[in-house]
Amino acid sequence: MFNKFMSEETQKVVWEWVESLVVAFILAMLIRTFLIQPFKIPSGSMRMTLVEGDRLFVNKLAYGPMVPLTSYRLPGFVKPRRGDVVVFKYPIQRQKDFIKRLIALGGETVEIKDGRVYINDVPVADGAIAGIHYYNYGTYAQPGKKITVPQGQYFVMGDNSASSHDSRYWGFVPEELVVGKAEVLFWPLDRIRWIK
Questions:
Q1: Residue 116 belongs to what domain range?
Q2: Which pLDDT score is estimated for 56?
Q3: Which of 1, 18, 61, 105 has the fewest CB atoms within 10 Å, i.e. the most exposed one?
């Protein structure tokens, strides 16, 4: 078909462009699926760590990326740790991505008392968590209530505790719903930094 409309040299150039675009697309999809993915912050639930409109890169390789269309996770380099800022599929509507700070791991007991987080009856000393006043909002954070996180799941909260819809309301994040670790804020330019 191309022979009728293009010279042999033109056809060669067109096919080189098509091949380059296909390879670039495949590489982009592999990078996005298994290595890093950009995200945009839609709400103020992580203020002042992250604000509306911030754009960041999430490292999927850190915890190990999920293999698409399976429940299998490739091995990662590290395990999620208390204080990490993580992106995950919202357990109630899995087509939505949420971003929160990891507060407690499976098997740990969580309590919010006088604005502080207690893990296994010990106040959290981690600077990112200890420096925030947490409110006793939601079913899973009533005053005097201790919640045990099931194995293979996480308890997460937003840094803006007064206006964050998080584990205090809807419970736990299963390990398989974790997308990755928020690593770098890359936009706007005056806010570029590592995320802590």
A1: 39-66+76-194
A2: 92
A3: 1
Closest CA to 86 of 168, 170, 167: 167
45 is catalytic: yes
DSSP assignments along 62-93, one per residue: TT-PBPTTSS-B---SS---TT-EEEEE-SSS
CATH code of the domain containing 60: 2.10.109.10
> Dihedral (C-alpha) 129, 135, 136, 141: value to the nearest 10 degrees?
-30
60, 100, 164, 167: the catalytic one is: 100
Tell me how many domains the chain contains. 2
Measured over the CA atoms of residue 191, residue 196, residue 183 and residue 71, the dihedral's sign is negative
User: pLDDT averaged over consecutive 10-residue blocks of the chain (196 residues)?
Assistant: 65 73 64 71 87 90 79 80 94 90 95 93 88 90 92 95 92 92 88 86
pLDDT of residue 33: 58
Query: Which residues are bridge partners to 113 per DSSP?
Result: 116
Out of 45, 161, 164, 167, the active site residue is: 45
